[in-house]
Structure formats: structure tokens, C-alpha cells
Write a structure and sequence with these properties.
By secondary structure, the protein is an alpha+beta fold. The protein has a domain of 96 residues. 21% of the residues lie in helices and 25% in strands. The strands form two sheets. A six-stranded antiparallel sheet has the order 3-7-6-5-4-8, covered by helices on one side. It has a two-stranded antiparallel ribbon with strand order 1-2. The protein is elongated, with a radius of gyration of 22 Å.
Length: 178
């Protein structure tokens, strides 16, 4: 009797686990790893839109920024432009490497890891400074007002290097020359 009850319990547990099975989908891109984590801030939702439509909708957005005097300005981020792909000599996760080439003119292997940029001294945002966080880094080119900057952004999505508007929210601005 106990064997039947135990067998029934095991059967119920096994069948309920099988009912919860879902297809395995990795949320991490193949080129992401522990030493070069990926930045998924550009991840697109998959709710009925094709990836191309989602990208076009992302590029066509308008952003409102305010300065210290609470003056609101609306800027279009549709002016982003792809200026290249992965630079020669850079790993597949290349935002740190691309930023090093932009700032120093050559690959600096220690700076391939985005979080290593945080070792530089903190500073105020200015052209030529770098915005970094664990997982991504980009070079500041021109202020657009508020916390929005035109940025040289290597590996900004789709394995492309872009010049586009980026917010500094969540990033630490550092001086790579200091």
C-alpha cells in the first residue's frame, strides 16, 4: 500500500515538472561572457513587432531634456548614424576597445572590460570624457542639453559603432587623461 502511495506521489511530481517545461532560450548573446558582459539597454521588446520595426520605432523617438533652469528642449534621436562595426584587433564585445581606440588612438587591452574604465578619476561631463558602468562604456562628444550627449558608442547594438544621443543616467563620467 505504501509503495502505491509513494509511486503515485512520485508520478504526480514528475508529471507536474514536465508540464512546467519551457523551451530553453538563452537571454545572453553568444559573445557575452564573465569578462565582457553585454549591455542590454538596447534590447528590443518582442510584442508583435519585427526586430526591424522595433529598431525603426526606437530611432524615431523624441526625447525631452531639461537643463538646470528647467528649460525643456525636445531633441530627436533619429539622427544616430552607424559609423562602423567592430574595430580591427578588438574582441567581439568591443565597447571598451572601441572607446580606447577613440580616446588613445590604439587598443589598450586592459580597457576591453568596460568596468576597468571606472578606475579613472571621476569628472564632470565634457567632450572627450568617458561614461562608464559595469557592462558598457562610450565616449562623450557633444552636449545636447540636460543629461543627453552625442556619443561615440562602440558596440551600441547589432555589432555596430554609432554616433548617437545617449543619456548619462546610470553611468559614471571619468577622465581617461587624468
Amino acid at each position: 500500500m505504501i509503495n502505491r502511495v509513494l509511486s503515485a506521489c512520485v508520478f504526480i511530481v514528475i508529471s507536474s515538472v514536465a508540464a512546467e517545461a519551457r523551451p530553453y532560450r538563452s537571454l545572453q548573446a553568444a559573445e557575452c561572457n564573465v569578462t565582457m558582459p553585454c549591455d542590454f539597454s538596447y534590447a528590443q521588446t518582442r510584442r508583435g513587432r519585427s526586430p526591424r520595426q522595433a529598431l525603426q520605432a526606437y530611432r524615431a523617438t523624441q526625447m525631452t531634456v531639461t537643463d538646470a533652469g528647467n528649460t525643456a528642449t525636445t531633441i530627436s534621436v533619429s539622427g544616430d548614424r552607424v559609423i562602423g562595426g567592430r574595430p580591427a584587433g578588438c574582441p567581439s564585445s568591443f565597447c571598451g576597445c572601441g572607446a580606447a581606440i577613440r580616446v588613445f588612438g590604439h587598443v589598450v587591452p586592459e580597457l576591453n572590460l568596460a568596468s576597468n574604465w571606472l578606475r579613472f578619476p571621476r569628472t564632470a561631463p565634457a567632450p572627450g570624457m568617458v561614461a562608464a558602468r559595469h557592462g558598457h562604456v562610450f565616449v562623450l562628444e557633444q552636449s545636447l542639453g540636460g543629461d543627453m550627449w552625442m556619443a561615440y558608442d562602440a558596440n551600441s547594438g547589432g555589432h555596430a559603432t554609432r554616433m548617437h544621443a545617449r543619456s548619462l543616467r546610470g553611468y559614471t563620467v571619468v577622465n581617461p587623461h587624468g
